[in-house]
Specification:
This protein is of the alpha+beta class. It contains 4 helices and 16 strands.
């Protein structure tokens, strides 16, 4: 990754420049907690990690690559390449800027996340929040899009803050829980309410209780 380490000028390489040398596997890995590793050792310099992150791409098949004008190599990402570690919410002003303070009308609320690499991203139609359910643990796995194809996993403490801001809305005839940001509603829990459950399931739930 010679081009990346030469300085800030290599941060945003021209997309159309070619050909690139395919370097195969760079032997780099991004752990679930957002730590970057090279040849099994953590990369200690945050500035270098931030620089690598500017040339990180994701292909349609889900593979991750570091791309500079001269070379291209695959890296491993255990979950998402970034982690959202802080949430700021407030009143949307102008181009998505936020003014923190008392609770605002939901349609005018702005939710802004800070990643582990200090990148700021506000949830909107281009940066959606989505929540998956882990098939094994049945726990929620929340994410927000940072850049096209690249997401940040929302850390558990931040997700708890998000849940505290959630409110019920009716979507497709069903009541769900979610949050508003910049005029967009994001569902964070679409579990059926007791009213949505079939009668036999409601009776079973009552018996267990």
């Amino acid at each position: 990754m010679h081009d990346v380490t030469q300085g800030r000028k290599a941060e945003m390489p021209p997309i159309a420049r070619s050909p690139r040398t395919i370097c195969g596997d760079f032997r780099m890995r991004i752990a679930r907690d957002g730590t970057w590793y090279y040849q099994g050792s953590p990369i200690g310099r945050k500035e270098l990690v931030c620089l690598f992150a500017t040339v990180l791409k994701r292909e349609a098949d889900g593979s991750y690559w570091l791309e500079t004008p001269a070379e291209r190599g695959r890296i491993e990402v255990e979950d998402a390449p970034f982690v959202a570690v802080e949430l700021t919410w407030g009143h949307c002003c102008g181009e998505g800027a936020c003014e923190t303070g008392a609770r605002k009308p939901p349609a005018r609320q702005c939710l802004t996340f800070r990643t582990n690499l200090d990148e700021m991203v506000s949830a909107d139609e281009n940066h959606p929040i989505r929540v998956e359910i882990d098939p094994v643990t049945r726990e929620p796995r929340p994410y927000i899009t940072v850049r096209p194809g690249l997401e940040a996993r929302i850390s558990r403490p931040v997700f708890y803050e998000l849940v505290a801001l959630a409110q019920p809305e009716t979507v497709d005839g069903r009541e769900v829980m979610g949050v508003w940001s910049q005029g967009v509603f994001f569902i964070i829990d679409d579990s059926p309410t007791p009213e949505d459950l079939p009668e036999d399931l409601e009776e079973l739930d009552d018996e267990v209780a």
